[in-house]
Each structure stands twice: as C-alpha cells, then as structure tokens.
Amino acid sequence: MPYIAPQKDMMFTLEHVANLNQVFADLGVDLDSEMVTGILDEAAKLNQDIVAPTNRTGDVKPSYLHDGKVITSPGFKEAFKAYTEGGWQGLSHPESVGGQGLPKLLATACCEMLNSSNMSFALCTLLTDGAIEALLTAGSERMKQQYIPRMISGEWTGSMNLTEPQAGSDLALVRSRAEPQPDGTYKVFGTKIFITYGDHDLAENIIHLVLARTPTAPEGIRGISLFIVPKRMVNADGSLGAANDVQCLSLEHKLGIKASPTAVLQFGDNGGATGYLVGEENRGLEYMFVMMNAARFSVGIQGLSVMETAYQQARDYAAERIQSRPVDGSTREAVAIIHHPDVKRMLLMMKATIEGCRAMSYYTAGLSDIAHHHADESIRAKALAQYEFMVPLVKGFNTEQSIEITSLGVQVHGGMGFIEETGAAQHYRDARILPIYEGTTAIQANDLIGRKTIRDNGAVALNFADQIDETVAQLSRIESLATMAQPLANANTAYRQVVTFVLNHSKNQPNHVFAGSVLYLKLAGLLMAGWHSARAALAAQQQAQNGTADELFLTGKMATANFYMQHILPQTTALAQAIIAGGDTVADFDVSCF
Amino acid sequence: MPYIAPQKDMMFTLEHVANLNQVFADLGVDLDSEMVTGILDEAAKLNQDIVAPTNRTGDVKPSYLHDGKVITSPGFKEAFKAYTEGGWQGLSHPESVGGQGLPKLLATACCEMLNSSNMSFALCTLLTDGAIEALLTAGSERMKQQYIPRMISGEWTGSMNLTEPQAGSDLALVRSRAEPQPDGTYKVFGTKIFITYGDHDLAENIIHLVLARTPTAPEGIRGISLFIVPKRMVNADGSLGAANDVQCLSLEHKLGIKASPTAVLQFGDNGGATGYLVGEENRGLEYMFVMMNAARFSVGIQGLSVMETAYQQARDYAAERIQSRPVDGSTREAVAIIHHPDVKRMLLMMKATIEGCRAMSYYTAGLSDIAHHHADESIRAKALAQYEFMVPLVKGFNTEQSIEITSLGVQVHGGMGFIEETGAAQHYRDARILPIYEGTTAIQANDLIGRKTIRDNGAVALNFADQIDETVAQLSRIESLATMAQPLANANTAYRQVVTFVLNHSKNQPNHVFAGSVLYLKLAGLLMAGWHSARAALAAQQQAQNGTADELFLTGKMATANFYMQHILPQTTALAQAIIAGGDTVADFDVSCF
C-alpha cells in the first residue's frame, strides 16, 4: 500500500498551527496558500511516484561496497536525479548560492514527505543540507560559491565527519589531525566512523566536512577545527582532478536504514588527504553546532515521517483484515479489525501522536523562519530563543515516540507484522536509529536542561507555560472542547513543577536533576505536542462553526486532539513524579549493584 | 559478552517471593534449596556453555528450506542433543510418561535460562512442551505412551497447527477439514501458516497437532477438533514408517527469531494426511486452551528472558565504554558511561522491570504448582483461579515490557547498538514477536477482562488488591522502606478504580471498557510486578537485618525495588485516567476519520 502525502493535514497545520500566512507576511515572502498547495502537490507527486517505490527495494537490496566504491540501491540514482533536477535540494537555501530561498516552514512539509517516502534515501539530501549550512555559517565567500551551487544542483553531495571509534557523543576525544602545508592547505589524517553517505555513486564528488586537530590545538573541545576534504580534488577552473587521499574501508551492517551507506572513512593513509580550513582554527565545534541544530530538527522530522508511513500502512491493513466478531455483539459476523476497540485505540494513539508531533514541528519551523529572517531584531531574538528551546524537543520527543508508534504499527498487523515482506517491520527497524544519531536523546536532554532551561533561568520554558494557560482558558470557553482543558492544565502544572525542580536543584544536586533529564524532555514534548493539538482543535472548531470546510476532517481533528488529552497527556503527571520523587533512587544507586 | 544465568536473583526470588520451600512442602516434593541450587547450576552450565553460543550464529545463519526439508542453524543439533539427553525436556512432565515430575516453579527458572540463551532454539522445546500438555489433557492412554516418552527423549518433537491465512486470532474461521476413514483414522486437508518448527532436522519425527473440522461439525469455534498428524507414520512396533502427506511449502522471512523455522505446512495434497482424533470431536479448542495457558505463560517467560540478556549486554557495555565527563564535575576526565545519570536510569529501568517481572512470574509458577498438585481441593481451586488471572498478565505484561527494555538496551549502546554485530539489535528484533504470538496482547486483555475479571465479578482481582494493602502496611512499618508504601498504595487505588469501572460498564458500554483493555492489563501488570518487588524488598530487609547474607546484593535489591516504586508505578495513575476518562474518545471515534 503506497505512501500518500497527508496534504490536507499538512496544509491545515501550516495554516492554523504554524500561522503560515502571518509568517510569510512577516518575512515578506510572496506566496499565498494556493501557491503553497501547488508546491506541496509537486512534492507529493515526486515523492509518491518516484521516491517511495525505492523504500522497500532499498531495504532488501542495501547499498554495498565493491572495489572500494559504494554502489547504492536500485532506483536511487533515478530518484536523486529527479529530486535535484526538480530543485528540491535548494528549496530553503539562499538564492545567492543557487537555492530558492523559500521558508523553512514550507521546506519542513516537503522534508516530511521525502522522509516518509524513503528515510535511507533522504539522508543523502539531509547530510548535504547540513554541509551547506556549515559552509554558509563559516565558509569563505569563495568556498560558498565554489561548493554550494554544485551541491544544490546534485552534481556533488556533502558529508559530516565527526565520530571516531573513541569519540561518539564526546567530541572532546577527537584525535584526527590536520597538518598545515606551506600552500595554506592541510594534510588530514584519521579514521572516521558512522559516516552517512560517506561514499556513494549518486554524484560525481563528495564534499566531506571533517573535524580534526591542528598540531598547536589545545586539548578538548576547544581544539577542534573544521576542514573541507573533497573526495576528488577540484581544479581552479572547477573541473574535477585526481582522487583525494580518502578511502572507504567498510560499510556497517545495520538494524535499519539499510540502503543508507554508513561508512568507515580513512583519511590520509597515502601521505595525507588535502583539506581546507573552514573559518578559523579551533572553532570547528561552534560551526558544527549551528549546523547541528538544523540537522537535529531534520532528524525530528524523520521521526514524524516514519510514524506517518507506519500509520498509513497499519490503518490500511486494519481496514481490510477481517477477524473476530465485535465485542458489543452488534453483529455475529467477523468484522474488519479497525472496528475492534483495541485496534482503534492503537490507531488513535498513532494518529494523535503524529498530529501532535506535526503540529509542534511545523510551529517550530515557523519560529526558525522568524528567528532568522524577521526584520525586527528583538522579534528575531525572541523567536530564536524559542526555536532553540524547541529543537531538542522536536529531535528527542518525535524520535522517541517513533519507536513506540512504529512498534504499534507492527502490533496492528498481528503475525503479519513480524514478516518482513509486509513492510511494517522495516519502519520499526528504521526508526531505531533516530533517538541515537545527531545526538542521543540524553544529549538532547542535557541541551534542554543546560543551554535551554538553566541558562536563561527558565524564562523561555516558563513563557511557554503562560501561553499554554491561555489555550486552556480558550478551551474552557468552548463547550464542545471543554473536556480538553483540564488534562492540558494538569500537564502544564506538572511541567511547571519540573522546570522549577530543575532550576532549583541543578547546582546542588546535578545527579538528581540529570537522572530525570530524558523524562523532562518527554514531559515537555508531550505537553508541547498536546498544546499545539489543542490549538489545532480550536481552529477546527472555528472552521466547523463557519461551516466552510470539510466536516469529517474537522470532526476527526477535534476527536483526535481529545484522545491526545485523555489518553496521552496524563503521562506527564507520572513523569513529574518520577523526576521529582525518583531522582535520588538513581543518583544514590551504587553502580556495583548493577 | 556471554550470558551468565542470574542464579543469585533467581534463588532469592524462588525462595522469598515464590515461597519455594512452602510450595515444595505442600506438594510433598522432596527437594531442598541446596538441591535446587544444584539443578540450577547444571542448567546454567548447559545454557551458558552450549546453548548461548548458538544465539548470534542462528541470527546470522537462519534455518532454511532445502529440497522441501528444513536445515537448522549451526550448533542447533548439538544443543538439542545436549538438552534432551540431559533430561531437560521432561523436567516438569509426569514420571509416568518419562518425565521427572519436578515443580513448574523450578522448571520456570530453567525455562528462563534457556530462553535467555537462545529464544529461537528454545521455541522447539516450548512447542514440544505444548504438544505434550495437549496429549496429557485429551489424548488416550495409548497416545500418551506412544508419543510422549519419545518427545521427552528428543527422538521426536511436537508442533501446534492452529493458524490459517484467514484464521489468526479468530479460530472460528478455521477451514482445514478431516474426513473420517473406515479404519477410525482421518484424512486431513488444509493449509496451516506460522507453524513454529513445523519442519526441522533436530529429530527424526514431528508430532503435528492440527485443528480441523469434521464433515458434520457445526460452524464456528464449537466445530473444531484436534488431530495428531505425524510427519512420518509410526508403525505398530514403534518404528517409523513412510512419510505422511504433509509438506513444508516455505519458511517465513522474519524480523527476529530468525533461526526458528516458521513454516507454511500443506496437509493432504496427495490424497490426505493420516490423522488421529485426540479426545472427542468438536472439543479441539477446549483442549487447546488448556495447553495454551501453559504456552502463554512460557511466552511470558521468554519476555523476561530476552530482557535479562539485553540488560546484561547493556550493563557490560556501559561499564566499559568511556565517554564524557560526569555532570557533577567530580572529575575532568571522561568516565565509563555507567556513571552518567541517564545511563544509570536506563539500566535501572531495565533491572527493576526484570526483577519485577521475574518476581511476578515465579510467584505465578508457584500458584500453578499449588493449583495442580496440592492435596486440598479448595486450596487447588483458589490457586487455580489466581493462576489463571495471572497468566494473561505474565504473557501480556512481560512481553510488552520486553519491547521497551530491549529498546533501552539498544539505546545504552548508542550508535553501536544499531550495528548488528553488537548483538543488542537482535534482542530488539527477537522480542517483537512476543506480544503477538500465542495470542496478541489484546487477546490476553480480552481474556483478563472477560474470563478473569467479569466472570467472578472481580473476586480474584480484588482479593489481590487486599493482599497488596497488607504489603503496603508492612512497608509503612519499616523506616528504610517506608517511602515505597505510598506509590504502591496509589497504584493499588488506581487498580481498584479500574476493576470497578470494568465491572460496572462491561455490559452497558462494552466498547468503552474494551478500549481500555490493554491499558488495564498494563496497569495490573505494573502493579503485580511492583507488589512482588516490594515483597522482595521486605525479604531483603529482613535478611539484611539478620546480617547473614550478601549485603551488596540485598542493598541493590531494595534500591531497585524503590526505583520501581518511584519511577515505574506512577504510570498506573495515568493509565487509570486514560481507561476511565478516555474510553469514549475511542468508542465514539468514527473510523472514517482515520
């Protein structure tokens, strides 16, 4: 059963949760809803017709290493050609480097479609986006003009080389080194692992961005610089020269996203790979962090995407599979399992989670647009702080939920879910990388606590709580939505308690606070997704009252949000208890008892 | 890192939670703790040295079909020989049919070890146990003597043939047919799918137990009979005759337990497979249910087992992997990740869940022993009702938790967890079948509500709540454990509310009640595992006070139980809210909105 882009919900969310028209007006972007719909139509067509059919094929026939070169899965070259020729790689990049300069809000919906269609394929474009962002942040003007237009055109792609065997989450342990040469270039040496699309045959060149240390660099994270190391050298006239000193030693054999080549790259085994310093020495990690915020957001979208695909498949199966009589005795015949209460509950859990995560994610994309492009500096600053608070939630929460939701997708299928040919199992395997790469959930949670909650003494965190109070008040005033108010208010109370606990105890009891870091992230994610679901329900109620739009869709929207409030939000209270009362059960535990 | 049987915790749980000595005394079993320890030592040796090394090999080299015959994974034949020659297949079966007649309590600990070592391998013995149980329940004396001793010796194995393409959870839809022959035998025709060890090369014959309809049978579940259909015919003198008319058409390509062959079997394509009616016509499903209670319990143990293996691997990795400085600034060096609060939390979540599930499961095994073998009929009856209440919890809760716990096992490994060679991913894949086969969690939950809660008007369910009150009172009286009392009391309150809700609304609002069926199962499972964890903590405190035993072990036991109370049990309140306030959000949802 093929993927169909959920355009109706996407448009509703863009317009009524992420305030698309307001964002576009603020940014001076000359697009209306109709034009956005047109762009999403085109994206849907490409993704449904060309990208999605490669998803299962890629899982069955993963990329492989042959004679030191990576051969990608069947159909990937054609899909990459269609994607880049259609201009999608440059969608949100500046026009000055060959992009289309469109808002992230719009690009996010397209990104969701691409990742729903084939996460393994999408990773190539995601890593290229990351490399482009890094060069835009710290590259020289010459670098930008030399590399970015050809990465947008699809002639070249990008890769991010951070991890080493001893340096995963802890980049302070990076050992790769870069020796300055008389001509201003560097010779780069080292082994990098887990390099997504570190080699492939989709483009003629790969622009590797590599973290390494110069000989005089201080130890730790303050001694890491960023280098461009092209797979093939680029001549002054832009033509390709000889191969650089980079080898793909092996590909990992992974649980999921099997079509995406995960390479071990060896730099400098034959005298040193030629590299070019990006920005200033020892500021590599800082540049990486700018890029990483964007990449983390995209991984959060991957979580949303894989949930949507899993949901569509489970829903379609449940509508067709006939099994058992209904428990209410309404007929003596076996019925489609979609009518059985527990199957309905599972599908609602999937649908409500997806709509909550989509609402939260698109809202966050809108914040990014305002943060980066609004004319008013103070509005930019405020939006930036909010955006940065939301990034670990979009990354951490969407991806953690994607494990549970893809697991439910398997469960809805019963025994067929365990058979690989069905396809449900692939989503369960694919999703499992999401809470790990681009910073594990614990890393996101540390970021949420340290940089995003404590640094401003909870200002942004608590400002969100105030906004949620307003939504609670709005819900209370509308009879048909009033039952949603209390659960949202309770969740907001739990959130405030935890923020206060974090602020009060992070200095004197850091081990207690950080024992609850991931739980705080989950609580905040549950609340934010619930809040925006409630906002969506309010908008739906408004529209239904106006009597203008699709009634069934609006009814479903409100009912799904209500399920979220009653079934999902109560978890927040349990999490608050675990964080506040349970901190010492972790902090005081003697590890020799494990 | 090899599996090591957690014998210390097993013995502690057997003695202090499942009251091993009392059970043995009640049953007149002539075994003491020392002899039990000796048996567990032997089981540990076999499983650690011979079975466990085949687990990863079996995943990499699954069983396969060659010329219509299934070839099992490397090492499986040797392991099966060692297992059956050691007498382990007959451990808990009656001495009258060649077994050792030992209590289920003891067999459960051995079953846990076997499944921790290799779930795919263990399935062959588990299905043989199921076939033996069915024959013990309904087979003629001649059948028992003809088949069971050779299934215990390992010359033959058993298989259970229920599922057909159109009949999964709903056995009323079974279409396989059995035509009576003049000689009293039947000709069996039909296609059976998902047949675990439906063919293999570990033994010379397979005793297929097959559900089919006779020509005069009524429709639905009251028209299903049970037949023995041997893979090879058995001559009157016990020697093997010609092949029966059964073919293995194909093996499934599965997400996990890849070494376990899951067959499509075709019966009767060449004139009809010879079958022998077991018991009476049309009572097949009834016989199957007796057997299924045993099999469901064993699948629950599989959930426990795979969690233990995942935990051991994650713990060992976390103790070795050096990454990042501690958040409390206690040193400027990177430390083993086991010291980081979120890793500790994840490992505690794993350990506390495992110990809770083990305690609940062993306690349930003890109930089974009393229920089946106590001299006093009224004690037997009471224990049977309690045992039957617990079976869907052991099956449903342990297996649902195994998804979350094996997922945490991957997460603790970071990026390495996603690489298949690490082994953590295999547990995540293997575990995924557990909430599906032998009745999905929804089927368990229906059983819990219908047969186990409503039928006796909540008598057994609420009696457990009263017992839990006593444990709460005991905790309150002991200063060092007093903090555990309130969370347990809260969970018990949530449980009582839900039992009352189920009892009051199952008739007038069945769709509302069944929308919360799985949540009720989870709530009850969380509570029962927590209750027995609390009982374990009380026993540990008592021992620690006596000053006789291993102090570190006892401290860990109490601290782990406390983690359970503070971190895990609060979920029960959230579940109760979802069940009670959220029923209508599911029941009233229009499926055309999906």
UniProtKB/TrEMBL annotation, chains A, B:
Domain Acyl-CoA dehydrogenase/oxidase N-terminal positions: 77-155
Domain annotation Acyl-CoA dehydrogenase/oxidase C-terminal: ranges: 282-448
Span of domain Acyl-CoA oxidase/dehydrogenase middle: 160-268
Residue ranges that the Swiss-Prot or TrEMBL entry lists as coiled coil: none
Gene3D superfamilies named in the record: Acyl-CoA dehydrogenase/oxidase, N-terminal domain (1.10.540.10), Butyryl-CoA Dehydrogenase, subunit A, domain 2 (2.40.110.10), Butyryl-CoA Dehydrogenase, subunit A, domain 3 (1.20.140.10)
Top-level EC class: oxidoreductase
Lineage: superkingdom: Bacteria
InterPro entries the UniProt entry points to: Acyl-CoA_dh-like_C_dom, Acyl-CoA_Oxase/DH_mid-dom, Acyl-CoA_Oxase/DH_mid-dom_sf, AcylCo_DH-like_C, AcylCo_DH/oxidase_C, AcylCoA_DH/ox_N, AcylCoA_DH/ox_N_sf, AcylCoA_DH/oxidase_NM_dom_sf
EC annotation from Swiss-Prot or TrEMBL: 1.3.99.41
GO molecular function: flavin adenine dinucleotide binding; oxidoreductase activity, acting on the CH-CH group of donors
Reactions catalysed, as given in the entry: 3-(methylsulfanyl)propanoyl-CoA + oxidized [electron-transfer flavoprotein] + H(+) = 3-(methylsulfanyl)acryloyl-CoA + reduced [electron-transfer flavoprotein]
One Pfam family recorded for the sequence: Acyl-CoA_dh_C
Record-linked SUPFAM superfamilies: Acyl-CoA dehydrogenase C-terminal domain-like, Acyl-CoA dehydrogenase NM domain-like
Cofactor names: FAD
Keyword list, A-Z: FAD, Flavoprotein, Oxidoreductase
Biological function: Involved in the assimilation of dimethylsulphoniopropionate (DMSP), an important compound in the fixation of carbon in marine phytoplankton, by mediating the conversion of 3-(methylthio)propanoyl-CoA (MMPA-CoA) to 3-(methylthio)acryloyl-CoA (MTA-CoA).
Protein family (similarity comment): Belongs to the acyl-CoA dehydrogenase family.
The protein's name: 3-methylmercaptopropionyl-CoA dehydrogenase
Organism: Hydromonas duriensis
